[in-house]
């Protein structure tokens, strides 16, 4: 069982591995492969749920997927990614939504897309016993405002990210995702913090790395420029489904070994 303490203590020692999963089958594969952290990402909006963005994803979507992932996971830490507007609107509903992930969905921690508005909230959640992973740089829930481009590309923006990183560490976050920022910014944030940084499109100097599992497997129709495809699962799936279709259409499936004949059922009429 990986704990938030294990993850925190890995900072500056061995690399932390994190991948998303949105269902029990995929989570079992990720867990058995020895990945440290399974993130039930709101990227399920773009992947499992078929939306164009993460914005329509609900607390219910993340809670039910987190519960499924948790049932299939024995070793990895399970982190629920809080969807758009589930936190930050007001303190009480933010705490309630995050609390549901631990109480109902059995998550080990929550991740919040962070900003100036999540510093006090992070402190309050941690105080209540809800571990928080922070997330800075590209925060896709703000895509209407920022687009999907690289963040922290000028000194002002970079200082803003470094500052917020420090504030979230101070507030008690146990780790920080840095998304789509220059490698030299991610390196300096990593050096400035004692909690681990987990990068996605943030260079090699973070304490860990995360990617969307569909991108890693080769399941996505579109992937960000920073992702790497490590397999061809979509091709594998396509060839299996086509082989099934061909076998049914040709009468080759089901064959004798897949059917059962009961003697006394001959001559029913
Ligand atoms: N499958 C998948 N993988 C992801 O990594 C991912 C999701 N979905 N959904 C949620 C967010 C969205 N992400 C994205 C999506 C697109 C770019 C991208 O194409 N960036 C280009 C174009 C920038 C622009 O449009 O301005 C770039 O060059 O930065 C980056 C991150 C990362 N996340
Ligand atoms: C890519 C990670 C960091 C994420 O937030 C997600 O998958 O939703
Ligand atoms: Mg997310």
UniProtKB/TrEMBL annotation:
Bound cofactor: record note: Binds 1 Mg(2+) ion per subunit.
Catalysed conversion reaction: (6R)-5,10-methylene-5,6,7,8-tetrahydrofolate + 3-methyl-2-oxobutanoate + H2O = 2-dehydropantoate + (6S)-5,6,7,8-tetrahydrofolate
Protein's name in the database: 3-methyl-2-oxobutanoate hydroxymethyltransferase
EC numbers, comma separated: 2.1.2.11
Family: Belongs to the PanB family.
Subcellular compartments: Cytoplasm
Record's keyword terms, sorted: Coenzyme A biosynthesis, Cytoplasm, Magnesium, Metal-binding, Methyltransferase, Transferase
Gene3D superfamilies, per the entry: Phosphoenolpyruvate-binding domains
Biological function: Catalyzes the reversible reaction in which hydroxymethyl group from 5,10-methylenetetrahydrofolate is transferred onto alpha-ketoisovalerate to form ketopantoate.
Pfam family, one: Pantoate_transf
Primary gene name: panB
């Amino acid at each position: 069982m990986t704990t938030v303490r294990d993850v925190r203590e890995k900072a500056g020692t061995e690399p932390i591995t994190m991948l998303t999963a949105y269902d029990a089958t995929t989570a079992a594969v990720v867990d058995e492969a020895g990945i440290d952290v399974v993130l039930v990402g709101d990227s399920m909006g773009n992947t499992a749920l078929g939306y164009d963005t993460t914005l329509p994803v609900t607390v219910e979507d993340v809670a039910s997927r987190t519960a499924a992932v948790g049932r299939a996971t024995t070793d990895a830490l399970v982190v629920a990614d809080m969807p758009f507007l589930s936190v930050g609107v007001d303190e009480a509903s933010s705490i309630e939504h995050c609390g549901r992930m631990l109480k109902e969905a059995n998550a080990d921690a929550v991740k919040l897309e962070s900003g100036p508005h999540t510093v006090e909230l992070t402190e309050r959640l941690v105080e209540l016993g809800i571990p928080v992973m922070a997330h800075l740089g590209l925060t896709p829930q703000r895509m209407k405002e920022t687009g999907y481009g690289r963040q922290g590309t000028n000194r002002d923006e970079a200082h803003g990210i470094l500052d917020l990183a420090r504030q979230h560490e101070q507030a008690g976050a146990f780790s920080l995702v840095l998304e789509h920022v220059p490698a030299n910014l991610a390196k300096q944030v990593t050096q400035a913090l004692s909690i681990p940084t987990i990068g996605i499109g943030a260079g090699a100097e973070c304490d860990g790395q995360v990617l969307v599992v569909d991108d890693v497997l080769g399941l996505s129709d579109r992937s960000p420029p920073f992702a790497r495809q490590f397999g061809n699962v979509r091709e594998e799936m396509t060839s299996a489904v086509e082989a099934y279709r061909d076998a049914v259409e040709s009468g080759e499936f089901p064959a004798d070994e897949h059917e059962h004949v009961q003697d006394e059922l001959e001559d029913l009429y």
